[in-house]
Amino acid sequence: MFEGLRAKLQKVQTGFAQSIQSGSSEETPLPGKANQTGEEKSPSLLGKVKVLITDREFLIDEKDINEPLFELEMILLENDVALPVTDAIISHVRTELTGKRRKIGEPVDTIVETALKNAILDILGNGFDLISYIRGHERPVKILFTGVNGTGKTTTVAKVASFLKKNGFSVVIGAGDTFRAGALEQIDVHARRLGIKIIQHQAGGDPSAVLFDAVQYAQAHQVDAVLADTAGRFHNRVNLMNQLDKIRRVMKPDLIVYVDEAVAGNDAVVRAHEFERAVGADAVVLTKADMDPKGGAAISIAHTIGKPLMFLGTGQGYDDIIPFSPERVVADLFPEGP
Amino acid sequence: MLDRLGTSLKDALKKLAGKTVIDRAAVEELVRDLQRALLQADVNVKLVMQLSQAIKTRSLDEAPQKGMTVREHVLRIVYQELVNLVGVSGEVKLGPQKILMAGLQGSGKTTTTAKLARFFQRKGLKTAVICADTFRPGAFDQLSTLCAKINIPCYGDPALQDARVIVKNGLKSLGTAEVVIIDTQGRHALEEDLIQEIIDLNAMTQATHRWLVIDAALGQQARDQAKRFHDAISIDGVIITKMDGTAKGGGALSAVTETRSGIVFIGSGETIEDLERFEPDSFISRLLGMGDLKALVERAQETVTDSEIDINAMMRGKFTLRDMYKQLEALNKMGPLKQIMSMIPLGNIEVPGEVYDVTSTKMARYRTIMDSMTATELDDPSVLSGSRIQRIAMGSGTLPEEVRELIKYYKNMKRALKGVRGAGGKFNMQRMMKRFGGM
Questions:
Q1: Which of A257-271, B169-183, B279-293, B312-326 has the lowest mean pLDDT?
Q2: The domain defined by B97-283 carries CATH number 3.60.20.10
Q3: Which candidate among A26, B68, B176, B397 keeps its CA 20 to 30 Å from the CA of B315?
């Protein structure tokens, strides 16, 4: 992922560099000429010249970067970065660049790249390391998966189960989606293929009861982790959100993991917020990241929900899941270059 | 969908109210607001730029028609350009046909397949479905459970790995069905082997329609994904699903542009009946806060047979408890009140929240209370005095407060409907605003 955004960002970096470069070169005339126009224009011009003379530095002016900033905004939006998040990144870059003094000879690229990197790192927050969480926590660790319909909760549960099993933990799955036709069969097949114990009741049953039983089973059999699947629900359905709240009260999860898809647009932010409000969320899993070579939604959700990303789902196989780390994303977006 | 777009658009239009000359600054501001709103709704960036440019140029260049205020003039242009953007509604024939469903993982293909089967079944066509999803565990169970509920034959074979073989056998065994809907596995543009599979399925079945199912929440990706599907099997219709959430479906508009097709249906709920035909015109009307009578009447005709609601009487403002009783009776069939109300041209005026916040259990209780009323009371609720309320409460085994609550609900409802009266043509929003100003 991120290929699209990476290429675009590189382009906009050069845009910044050029416009700062040209901005600076325009504003480096002889001191005498600058003094003539200095009073009519803005005082910043005078300051700029002063800086030039005294410190041998350039001052980056806001108007030098306005155009590339607008370009950056469009690029971020086009890459599914949500509007408020785009605004946050832009203002971060703007504050960091405006009024910044650039030493003569210091490459502009570095300044711009650092500003962008900082902005994105700031937006992404920290990742969530599930393995060390489980290691440092009393067993069983109860993990509840939530999210809207069709984001891939059940598949994610199977993938995480397989991931934990590979890392030497014992796992039990609670089949909490008793509503959607075929959901029980789906998770049952996954569990059988992975050789993982599954607790389920019949279709239409109370999900709280199923998940309670799953927790009981885990306690009785010293299982390390309980993964609780739930039915997809929309955040604007009060009854369904109440049901989720009941599940939370009954099974008392240690972690609530919100699952959404990386290809979702601006609505991702709305619903992430609503889920966070209704039942809370400790970590986020983004699925279908392989569909989107851009990855803007990842950046958006990480920022809005203010919760760390735990995994990225990147395909249909059980191993298509990668633990998320912000440093890796930034390294991916800005490959070490000139 | 696009509710919020409607609101912010209205805010922007307010600034044009009362102006007699077209004000460049005001138009530019309107266009900027429109841009932000559309981007927020996940409409493709390039489409938004095209649209806003067109609106700007036309608003400033074209002279307003005689008798039209500046606001009406701009509103008309915005409306026309949006209609252009949304495109025409995809064609749905009521005859023998094969429909191939395509879409990304988790976009709602299987649920929509069942809903479509129900749609054609209700139109009196012999319908059957084939489950060609050989990958996702439980896919066949899901589809066959849904189909069993509505008595639709469902062909599938979880033991087989090749979707092509399943479809071939399925078409053979479902020979007599008029409408065959083929549900396929979710796939995305970068999965070459799966794209090849759907190309093969399309060639083999010679499907009449190839419909692309798009999640309303899909973002800017919609364009690229739709393009790949279109290149592979030339999509001729788009279905937007999960419109009951807060997503605005702007991504689907990109898909429509990319495939040069139209939106055929909108999925807006989890039950099998929650599928609406897409009407671009009424869709835009709703979007601009001008309600959509057509869809309401259509829906009412289809579901309400014996206990008809006299929409026209309601529109004339003659709305008694008896009408409300019938309405409550029909409600289960017609869908949630809010959905219906959103189709009545209330100019998107805030109807008091309590009108909507009535759960189905409360509805049932209201009906019980009304069963204890006399004919006079039902026809003329103004006669309801304290002692009558007492009697009704006793008779229906409820509390007087509940009876009062019902009367309050009725009054709210009546007031809301009264506003509809005389809403008339499409562009007299101003008049409607005034009418509701006092509410």
A1: B279-293
A2: no
A3: B68
What confidence tens digit (pLDDT) does each residue in B91-116 have?
888 889 999 999 999 999 999 999 99
Contacts A290 to B, Cβ<8 Å: 188, 190
Count of alpha carbons within 13 Å of B11, Cβ hemisphere only?
11
Give me the amino acid identity at B290.
Answer: M
| Rounded-to-integer distance, Cα A187 and Cα A175, Å | 7
Give the gap in angstroms from C-alpha B146 to the nearest C-alpha of chain A: 7
> Among partner residues A79, A83, A180, which is closest to B220 by beta-carbon distance?
A79
How far, in Å, CA of B44 to CA of B273, rounded?
Answer: 30
CA A35 to each of CA A28, A57, A64, B118, B400: distance values in angstroms, whole numbers, following the listed order: 12, 18, 20, 79, 85
Tell me the CA end-to-end span of chain A in Å, nearest whole number: 22
Domain B293-437 has CATH 1.10.260.30: yes
Task: State both tokens at A99.
Answer: 């009024």
B362, burial (CB in 10 Å: exposed 0-12, middle 13-18, buried 19+) = middle
Write the ipTM.
0.74
B107, B142, B188: residue with CB nearest A180: B142
- Residue ranges covered by each domain of chain B: 3-86, 97-283, 293-437
Backbone φ and ψ of B150, nearest 5°: -115, 15
Query: Whose CA is closest to B35, among B16, B50, B15, B57?
Result: B50
Could you tell me if A72 lies within 8 Å of chain B, comparing CB atoms? no
Q: Do B245 and A74 touch (CB under 8 A)?
A: no
Using beta carbons and an 8 Å cutoff, which residues of B are at the interface with A?
A: 36, 39-42, 45, 104-108, 110, 135-143, 145-146, 188-190, 215-222, 225, 242, 244-248, 250-251, 270
- Mean pLDDT lowest for which of A87-91, B60-64, B403-407? B60-64
Contacts of B40 in chain A (CB under 8 A): 83, 266
In the chain, the amino acid numbered B200 is D
Q: Does A242 touch chain B (CB under 8 A)?
A: no
* Helix H or strand E segment including B368: helix B360-371
Q: Which CATH number describes the domain made up of B3-86?
A: 1.20.120.140
Of A83, A188, A271, the CB nearest to B39: A83
Structure confidence at residue B13 (pLDDT): 62
Identity of the residue numbered A283: A
**Chain B, nearest residue to A300 by Cα:** B219
**Structure token digits, residue B150:** 């509505």
Query: A3-124: CATH homologous superfamily?
Result: SRP54, nucleotide-binding domain (1.20.120.140)
Q: How far is A218 from chain B (nearest CA, A)?
A: 25
Domain ranges, ordered by start, for chain A: 3-124, 130-333
Sign of the CA dihedral with B382 first, then B387, B389, and B394 last: negative
- What pairs with residue B210 in β-bridges? B100
Closest CA to B44 of B217, B281, B221: B221
* Partner B contacted by A265 (CB < 8 A): yes
Cβ–Cβ gap B220/A78 under 8 Å: yes
Q: What is the mean pLDDT of residues A5-16?
A: 72
What residue in A sits closest to B1 (Cα-Cα)? A267
Taking CB atoms and an 8 Å cutoff, what residues of chain B touch A185? Answer: 137-138, 141-142
pTM above 0.80, yes or no: no
Domain A130-333 has CATH 3.40.50.10190: no
B236 vs B417, which has greater pLDDT? B236
pLDDT, one tens digit per residue, over B129-155 is 999 999 988 899 999 999 999 999 999
Q: What is the pLDDT of residues B285-299, one digit of tens each?
A: 554 544 443 443 444
Q: How far apart are alpha carbons A268 and A283 in whole angstroms? A: 15
